């Protein structure tokens, strides 16, 4: 299969009652949506955020229109959005201050935190601290597992 050129992965988050989520993401990322289309009843049909060189979309779960189930409907999420940022701690602090829950906080060549936003979506937030080879990462993981077994 040929590799697509100009390919860009864009997460599309389905959220029950997406209005508060739009406000949350605007606050956390410090940007207003570049596009927001609401349905006649006020529900968010489509909302687009542009953050750095990337973007992501948000909408209501809209099952009557074939929309994806939200984490609220599933009782959890099946995917995590992973972000590389210049300052992991600042982004995680902004998310926590806005109501997210920090689930894990660790590092292995990266400063990394796993966060669940108030709408059930999980985010991995990382800042690369050093470039590590696969062998160095495997060695670091082995040391961590050995310490966990003590």
Commentary on this structure:
It is a single chain. This protein is an alpha/beta fold. The protein folds into 2 domains: 1-73, 2,3-Dihydroxybiphenyl 1,2-Dioxygenase, domain 1; 79-150, Signal recognition particle alu RNA binding heterodimer, srp9/1. Helix content is 28%, strand content 33%. It is built from 4 helices and 8 strands, in the order βαβββαβαβββα. It has a 4-stranded mixed sheet with strand order 1-4-3-2, covered by helices on one side. It starts with 11 loop residues before the first strand and ends with a helix. The model has no long low-confidence stretch (mean pLDDT 91). This is Glyoxalase-like domain protein. InterPro entries: Glyas_Bleomycin-R_OHBP_Dase, Glyas_Fos-R_dOase_dom, VOC_core. Residues 6-128 form the VOC domain. Pfam families: Glyoxalase.
How is this structure best summarized?
It is built from 4 helices and 8 strands, in the order βαβββαβαβββα. With 150 residues, the protein is α/β, with parallel strands linked by helices. The strands form 2 sheets. Strands 1-4-3-2 form a 4-stranded mixed sheet, covered by helices on one side.
Write the layout of secondary structure elements.
Layout: E1 12-15, H1 18-29, E2 35-38, E3 44-51, E4 54-60, H2 71-74, E5 80-84, H3 88-97, E6 101-107, E7 110-116, E8 122-128, H4 134-149
Protein name: Glyoxalase-like domain protein
Pfam families: Glyoxalase
Organism: Posidoniimonas corsicana
Tell me about the largest β-sheet.
Answer: 4 strands, mixed
Low-confidence blocks of residues: none
Oligomer: single chain
Order of neighbouring strands in the sheet with most strands: 1-4-3-2
What is the annotated CATH architecture of the largest domain?
A: Roll
CATH fold-level label of the largest domain: 2,3-Dihydroxybiphenyl 1,2-Dioxygenase, domain 1
Kindly state the number of beta strands. 8
Mean pLDDT: 91
| CATH secondary-structure class of the largest domain | Alpha Beta
| Structural Rg | 18 Å
Structural class: alpha/beta
The N- and C-terminal alpha carbons lie at a distance of 46 Å
Q: Identify the overall geometry.
A: globular
The portion of residues assigned to helices is 25-40%
Please give the domain count. 2
Order of helices and strands: EHEEEHEHEEEH
**SS field, number of helical segments:** 4
């Amino acid at each position: 299969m040929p590799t697509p050129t100009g390919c860009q992965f864009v997460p599309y988050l389905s959220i029950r009652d997406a209005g508060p989520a739009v406000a949350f993401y605007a606050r956390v990322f410090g940007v207003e949506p570049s596009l927001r289309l609401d349905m006649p009843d006020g529900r968010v049909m489509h909302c687009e955020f542009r953050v750095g060189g990337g973007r992501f979309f948000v909408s209501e779960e809209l099952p009557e229109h074939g929309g994806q189930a939200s984490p609220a409907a599933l009782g959890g999420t099946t995917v995590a959005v992973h972000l590389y940022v210049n300052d992991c701690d600042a982004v995680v602090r902004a998310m926590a201050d806005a109501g997210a829950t920090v689930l894990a906080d660790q590092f292995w060549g990266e400063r990394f935190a796993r966060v669940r936003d108030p709408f059930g979506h999980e985010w991995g937030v990382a800042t690369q601290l050093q470039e590590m080879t696969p062998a160095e990462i495997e060695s670091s993981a082995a040391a961590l597992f050995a310490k966990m077994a003590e």
